[in-house]
Design a protein that fits this description.
Blueprint lengths: L12 E4 L2 E4 H23 L6 H24 L2 H4 L18 H19 L3 H19 L1 H6 L13 E3 L8 E3 L2 H23 L5 H20 L6 E2 L2 E2 H23 L36 H38 L1
Helix pairs in contact: 1-2, 1-5, 2-4, 5-7, 5-8, 7-8, 8-9
């Protein structure tokens, strides 16, 4: 008899009337909120403006969800397109199945679009988001607990996870790999925050540290899992992915530190004031405030009036000359 274990929920969904509240989706939503909240604080601390992180997340999050689902479906296609399977299940994201590799890759594309629209550098934004993404993964992993999935080998340890009988699973107690990864992600987030404060990481190096740290943990955690997966040279596909991505992240970190040391001084340029006139209005007035060309007739009239005034001035000058001559003649007579 097991003296202690982590129980699993009897169901992963609670119905609030006709509305289903799914634990997996709830965990993902919490993770997104944490990432945006912490990312916004870090962005402001680096000189950015409030709300920018959320604005770009509007692009990054949908792209990330699509990318995560695509990676899962492609790498585990037998779950949806094998014999006796229903391909429609590939769209049931609430039942679990998001690959972090695809989520980060395609999410970066969405973030790049958002950053480009705001005129800010993607690496700086990624650095601000890095620890928040790790915490989002920590929260999201609890969705696997609700779905009783992605656990490890059987064990009788006090923190073993109880799994009930169900489709594609056998009742028993197993290693809670979801918990291991959740705790590891929290550690990675703390590491990135500490290193960023200590070494002033910039130009994407804080994000690279997060990626390398996560991959280091994902490799050994993935090795413990017993769910069905493709193997290459005796190792699970995700283990190989962890090795490749870890190597790429470390290489980027080292090269970036040599080529672009230090941190960005300006992460978000000033935007034009809301009350400023658009550049297109510049043609309506000249630099000295003259009237537009459409008022040329009026200007011509003014010029004509000026000419008249000039003529009157000239006549006055002649009169003054005549008076002066008269004064001279009087002087001779005297």
């Amino acid at each position: 008899m097991d003296l202690a274990y982590i129980p699993s929920p009897s169901t992963g969904v609670i119905h609030l009337g006709p509305i289903p509240l799914r634990g997996y989706a709830f965990c993902i939503i919490i993770g997104v909120f944490i990432a945006v909240w912490l990312g916004n604080r870090r962005w402001i601390a680096r000189g950015g403006k409030p709300g920018t992180v959320a604005d770009i997340a509007v692009w990054a999050v949908p792209f990330g969800l699509v990318g995560g689902r695509l990676y899962h479906v492609v790498t585990d296609y037998q779950l949806y397109f094998g014999e006796g399977r229903n391909w429609v299940d590939a769209f049931k994201i609430w039942e679990g199945g998001l690959g972090i590799w695809g989520a980060i890759a395609l999410g970066a594309v969405g973030a790049w679009i958002g950053c480009r629209r705001r005129g800010i550098p993607l690496p700086a934004w990624a650095d601000a988001l890095a620890p928040g993404i790790a915490l989002a993964q920590a929260a999201g992993r609890w969705g696997n607990w609700f779905n009783q999935e992605l656990y490890g080998r059987e064990t009788d340890l006090p923190w073993a996870l109880e799994i009930s009988e169900g489709p594609n699973r056998v009742a028993g107690t197993y290693h809670p790999t979801f918990l291991y990864e959740s705790l590891w992600c929290i550690g990675v987030a703390l590491l990135v925050i500490w290193a960023d404060r200590r070494f002033k990481l910039g130009h994407g190096r804080a994000f690279a540290l997060y990626v390398a740290g996560y991959c280091a943990g994902r490799g050994w955690i993935e090795y413990m899992r017993v769910d069905e997966a493709h193997h290459v040279l005796g190792l699970r596909l995700n283990v190989w992915t962890s090795i490749v991505v870890f190597t790429a992240a470390v290489a980027y970190f080292v090269l970036s530190a040599k080529l672009r040391p230090g941190r960005e001084e300006i992460v978000e340029p000033e935007r034009p004031a809301d009350g400023a006139k658009p550049k297109g209005d510049a043609v309506a007035t000249s630099e000295d405030g003259a009237k537009p060309k459409g008022d040329a007739p009026a200007a011509g009239g003014a010029k004509a009036d000026g000419a008249k005034a000039g003529g009157a001035k000239a006549d006055g000058a002649k009169a003054a000359g005549a008076k002066a001559d008269g004064g001279a003649g009087t002087a001779k007579q005297l």
